[in-house]
Amino acid sequence: MSTQNPPIPLPEAFKSAMRGLVGACSLITVGQGAAANGLVVTTGISLSAEPPMILACVNRASSCWPALQREGVFGWQALGAAHQTVADRFSGKGGLQGPARYAGAEWVTADNGGRLLADAPLAFACAVEDRIDRGTHSIVIGRVVQIRTCPNSGALLYWDGQYSVLTN
Question: Is residue 110 in a domain?
């Protein structure tokens, strides 16, 4: 019986394999004014209904990580069928950074100061409850303090490097 561990897959092989997993596109928004930033994640999910909490995995090398740590509040919204342009902006396509990512969409300010996409299928204003650091990412646990919904907005999905839409 061998006592050696199998080789660990290379990061590029892992990333390539993960592209085969269909993900719902969510948007994390954080900060205000010149410090506003955000990013698209496919890792946002429900954690608990009582109390209401969500979690998302965020790369600590992302441009919004410092603001997320500093602010302690954020918006988490599911992107709808009409939000590919928003996803492109917050993914940094075209070199957009920080507050420039918010242009071209309508935003509302939640009670806790978080920014929410006005026509998102669902949006949560959250307070950072906890974070768990592993590897290059942190699992950010958000306590939901406000909910907004916009029914019949469809969903923006990401699979194999491409966006797809799902509508009712």
Answer: yes
Please report the sign of the dihedral spanned by the C-alpha atoms of residue 89, residue 94, residue 99, residue 102: negative
Residues 104-109: contacts with CB within 8 Å, 24+ apart? 107/29, 108/148
The domain of 37 spans 24-160
9 lies in a domain? no
Q: Is residue 6 part of a domain?
A: no
Phi, psi of 158 (to 5 degrees): -130, 125
CATH number for the domain harbouring residue 61: 2.30.110.10
State the pLDDT confidence band at 16, using cuts at 50, 70 and 90: confident
| 3-class secondary structure, 108 | strand
The pair phi, psi for residue 7, each rounded to 5°, is: -65, 145
Closest C-alpha to 59, from 139, 114, 157: 139
Does residue 12 sit within a domain? no
CA–CA dist 75, 44 (Å, integer): 11
Q: Which amino acid is at 72?
A: G
Residues near 23 by beta carbon (within 8 Å), at least 6 away in sequence: 42, 43, 157, 158, 159
- Assign 2 a pLDDT band (cuts: 50, 70, 90): low
Give yes or no for residue 42 having a pLDDT over 70. Answer: yes
